[in-house]
Write a structure and sequence with these properties.
Structural class: alpha+beta
Number of domains: 4
Protein name: FAD-binding PCMH-type domain-containing protein
Low-confidence stretches: 518-527
Number of strands: 20
Largest sheet: 7 strands, antiparallel
Organism: Tagetes erecta
Radius of gyration: 23 Å
Strand content: 15-25%
Keywords: Disulfide bond, FAD, Flavoprotein, Glycoprotein, Signal
InterPro entries: BBE, FAD-bd_PCMH, FAD-bd_PCMH-like_sf, FAD-bd_PCMH_sub1, FAD-bd_PCMH_sub2, Oxid_FAD_bind_N
Domain FAD-binding PCMH-type: 59-234
Length: 527
């Protein structure tokens, strides 16, 4: 984008903001950043929440203007002005979108609304709820809960710097998924700015839109300002462990048994498996790591493991008894004795180049299948798998309770994980290629018709939207049914009602129903 065009958009935008703001705001310019006006500040704001260095290069498309609202009406004004100027608007909370779609666009002109200054968290222990603005990070939510109660928590992710907005609107899960379900399963209210610039809560937006933004990706429907969530009880004593097993310890047998018991064992227990190739003495080896969070003391955990998974050989000395907030640090691979205030550090994680993909496994993988998977990981040498069990309460929640459909019948979810630190475009291609080879190799082991995917692990390889109308709907359906299965068409209907002009859009947003003259009524009755 040319500097002159950037400057024109900036000047038009700031003038519009002043005109549509409901009250005089002499500091309105302080929330606007442009590469041609306040270059250093613009660059600092843009890069502050970039979590994938693949999308922080000279060639990465940049927003013409960044808006950093501090008040709700700033968001309203930004939406109204972006629509008036005919430019695309993107919304960023924590910047963890794996493909950078919260701040990168293929469209020529776009504006970024960065929510990071709207990060207030209010915990009310009389109702056991929290109102959390979408610019907050999970660590801030966890800290504010800890401030008020040592026996309450919230079922969300293990990375404290993940933004609340994207995490919850895409589903959100953590180590308490088998006990309490997803983050969206605990949402009771929300506030959103819609395509008309109105601020709506659950009552005024209606149940269909509320349903859509609780797992269907909020940025397809508006700018979510905050979520009201229910807190969940957690015990004073939690137990965690991390055990590594070697090839000499019958790891294929362990993996085979894990996939059978991890989804069916006591729902207070979550056992993740990490399969990450490592090079030791010029030899590539894959040693499974079993990492667990148990809502209870080590004595009860040892009894459960002895009865259900004795093959892992868990011992008392493997177990660490911690508080719930200490378990957050443990799972974030930080010192579990860290001061809780560290959760307020919004830049505590390192940033690498990375690629992610996802899959769901619904049929047990044979021992020979696990052996093949380990061999393939070793042969590729760098891409790893994170295996996250389902089961528990996830078997009981209907698939259409929220847009997130991946409930009963899933043994575990796979995250494909590839990281590197070297700034070399050739490595981008190399590691993208390796990850895609592994993804293709796994086809025979994972869900089919459709091959499902997790929205919060956004993957542009599974499809992108092309055009509008029929082509937009048909291309959107390709990735939409992988993310949402049978809930996709309901999301399309909601989208068409609340944003018929498709103002809120990205390469993988929810499409609108095509406006087709003389359309086949039978065809469109199925939508």
């Amino acid at each position: 984008m040319s500097p002159n065009l950037n400057n024109t958009i900036y000047e038009s935008f700031i003038q519009c903001l002043k005109e549509v703001s409901p009250e005089p705001d002499p500091d309105i310019s302080s929330i606007l950043f442009s590469s041609t006006v306040n270059t250093a500040a613009y660059t600092a704001v843009l890069q502050s929440s970039i979590r994938n260095r693949r999308f922080n290069t000279a060639n990465t498309p940049k927003p013409a203007v960044i808006v950093t609202p501090t008040k709700e009406y700033h968001v309203q004004a930004a939406v109204i002005c972006a629509k008036k100027l005919g430019v695309q608007i993107l919304i960023r909370s924590g910047g963890h979108d794996y493909n950078g779609r919260s701040y990168v666009s293929h469209e020529q002109n776009f504006i970024l609304v960065d929510m990071y200054k709207l990060h207030n968290v209010t915990v009310d222990m009389t109702t056991e709820t929290a109102v959390v603005q979408t610019g907050a990070q999970l660590g801030e939510l966890y800290y504010r809960i800890w401030e008020k109660s040592k026996v309450h928590g919230f079922p969300a992710g293990v990375c404290p710097t993940v933004g609340v907005g994207g995490h919850i609107s895409g589903g959100g899960y953590g180590t308490m998924i088998r006990k309490y379900g997803l983050s969206v399963d605990q949402v009771v209210d929300a506030r959103i700015v819609d395509a008309k610039g109105r601020v709506l809560d659950r009552k005024s937006m209606g149940e269909d839109l509320f349903w859509a933004i609780c797992g269907g990706g909020g940025a397809s429907f508006g700018v979510v300002l905050s979520y009201t969530v229910k807190l969940v009880p957690v015990p004073k004593v939690n137990t965690v462990f991390r055990i590594t097993r070697t090839a000499a310890e019958n790891v294929t047998d362990l993996l085979y048994k894990w996939q059978l018991i991890a989804p069916t064992i006591d729902r207070d227990l979550f056992i993740r498996v990490i399969l990450m190739p490592e090079t030791v003495n010029n030899q590539v080896t894959v040693q499974p790591v079993f990492i667990a969070h148990f809502l209870g003391d080590s004595g009860r955990l040892l009894q459960i493991m002895s009865n259900n998974f004795p093959e892992l050989g868990l011992k008392k000395e493997d177990c660490l008894e911690v508080s719930w907030v200490e378990s957050i640090f443990y799972w974030a691979v930080l010192d579990y004795k860290s001061p809780p205030e560290l959760l307020l550090d919004r830049h505590s994680d390192s940033v690498n180049f990375l690629i992610r993909k996802s899959d769901y496994v619904q049929t047990p993988i044979s021992k020979s299948g696990w052996a093949s998977i380990l061999d393939k990981l070793g042969a590729l040498g760098k891409c790893g798998l994170y295996l996250n069990p389902y089961g528990g309460i996830m078997e009981e929640i209907p698939t259409d309770a929220t847009p997130f459909p991946h409930r009963a019948g899933n043994l575990f979810k796979i995250q494909y994980s590839m990281n590197w630190s070297e700034d070399d475009p050739k490595l981008d291609e190399k590691y993208l290629h390796q990850t895609r080879i592994l993804f293709e190799f796994m086809t025979k082991y994972v869900s089919k018709n459709p091959r499902c995917a997790f929205l919060n692990y956004r993957d542009l390889d599974i499809g992108v939207m092309h055009g509008t109308g029929v082509s937009g709907y048909n291309s959107g359906k390709v990735y939409g049914e992988k993310y949402f299965k049978g809930n996709f068409n309901r999301l399309v209907k909601v989208k068409t009602r609340v944003d018929p002009d498709n103002f809120f859009r990205t390469e993988q947003s929810i499409p609108t129903l095509p406006k087709v003259k003389n359309a086949d009524p039978v065809l469109f009755s199925r939508i």
